[in-house]
Amino acid sequence: MLGISFPVFQGGMAWIADAQLASAVSEAGGLGIIAAGNADGEYVRKEIRKAKEMTDKAFGLNIMLLSPFADEVAQIAADEKVKVITTGAGNPAKYIRLWKEAGIKVFPVVPSVAFAKLAERNGADGVIAEGGESGGHIGEMSTMALVPQVCDAVSIPVIAAGGIADGRGVAAAFALGAEAVQLGTRFLSATECNIHENYKAKVLKAGDTATMVTGRRLGHPVRSIRNQFAREYSKIEYTEISDKELEEFAAGRLRMAVQDGDEKQGCFLSGQIAGLVTKEESCREIIEDLIRDAEGVLGGLGQWVK
């Protein structure tokens, strides 16, 4: 459907997944994805055109529907005719006709069976079933529980996301019924990923319990690495502070992590599988390792078949 060599999507991580990372993943045979995040249309258009200069392979654009620039970015995506759009934090129904008319394949991120069914009815080409193990905005269901139920509920392709970092996770996703996987945290350690060295070091040092979830009060929970900011947010989240003040307290924290490497006051998004991310590699090495190791796991199952 997408013309990619390997069934591997790179997650659309705001202020992280830029043209350089996306093009490197696509050049390696996966589907690189530029993240629009809260960026304005001019920034997004520049990144799309930059990626076109860096690769002739298919790449995608992730649109966070909570962004104040969502309408603008949705139109730019159609104008630029990106190959794939993934969406998060909302329902993309009002944009799907526009995108489909531009020849774009649409893959909403879904946190539940109900949302997956809705996406299929609205004309999505596939869905990304993302469990709560992932970094950034998360749902409540785990990947292990969510993916097979979504696979049973829809007839379009399902991409598994959340808690996948190596070949074992890829093999598990296929065993659950998925046709591809999406990885975010794993690509934070890529040599082509332009996050601050402090961010990359935090991911490489993280263990299995290094992350925590904040933001449930506002209806948009986020998983990040524990630090001073995350603990302070957690402490005040359920006090008498207003929603507006809480939003202002968190504003700009991701950019402080990505660009400034502020270890105390930045928000370092990461999934629970950071403990499996132990070294820096190129995107090509990451993808080739994933596929080779997954083949080894799936091939090894033959010994149990009588």
Q: What is the topological layout?
A:
Blueprint: E1 8-10, H1 19-27, E2 32-35, H2 41-54, E3 59-64, H3 70-80, E4 84-88, H4 93-101, E5 105-110, H5 113-121, E6 127-130, E7 136-137, H6 143-153, E8 158-161, H7 167-175, E9 180-183, H8 197-205, E10 211-214, E11 222-225, H9 228-236, H10 243-250, H11 253-260, H12 283-300
Parallel strand pairs: 1-9, 2-3, 3-4, 4-5, 5-6, 6-8, 8-9
Antiparallel strand pairs: 7-11, 10-11
Helix pairs in contact: 1-2, 2-3, 3-4, 7-12
**Broad structural category:** alpha/beta
Average pLDDT reading = 94
List low-pLDDT spans: none
Strand/helix succession: EHEHEHEHEHEEHEHEHEEHHHH
Dominant shape: globular
Reading side by side through the largest sheet, how are the strands ordered? 1-9-8-6-5-4-3-2
The percent of residues in helical segments reads 40-55%
| Quantity of strands, as a count | 11
N→C terminal distance: 35 Å
Q: State Rg.
A: 18 Å
Share in β-strands? 15-25%
**Major sheet description:** 8 strands, parallel
**How many helical elements?**
12
